[in-house]
Amino acid sequence: MPLPNWDFIHMPCIWGHHNNSQIFLDVGVIDAASVPAILRQTPVRMFKALVDTGCQRTMISSKVAAQLGMFAVGKTAIQGIGPAVTYHNAYLFHVAFMIASVAHVLPLAIQGGEIASAHGFDVLLGMDVLGIGSLKVEGNGTFSFSF
After folding, report:
1. 34, HSE (Cβ side, Cα atoms, 13 Å)
2. Residue 1 within a domain
3. Residues 61-82 pLDDT 10s
4. pTM for the full model?
5. Measured between alpha carbons, how far is 97 from 105 in angstroms, rounded to an integer?
6. Which pLDDT belongs to residue 140?
7. What is the CATH number of the domain that holds 37?
8. Nearest residue to 58 (alpha-carbon basis) of 109, 134, 119
């Protein structure tokens, strides 16, 4: 009996190195309002992302929002460690991964909050994205993410 044509058989995969405390990778951020136009004509804008398995939702910096000309769709509650809740601008966007010059745009739009731009990265990649695939962190300083 032949195998079904499952998407995960040919899952795209990203490989890289980590420093034993942080994983950074480049991701594309696309304003959800401009997805059809950007897929037809414009290269995907890439930004440095920190992989954060403790973050529920992917968030972008104010720098990303400004560079892409995005407009906030409201406010979202953000709670870190402890009981304090703060409210941040929320944006609707898609995340993309570039593999061999091909943009793999995740179909589900994310409503993510805004973070400050002063952390050395512009995207906080949360479990809403990481949960669609498989993240493997190796003790030899490498990682892979298949989706």
Report:
1. 16
2. no
3. 999 999 999 999 999 988 878 8
4. 0.84
5. 7
6. 94
7. 2.40.70.10
8. 109
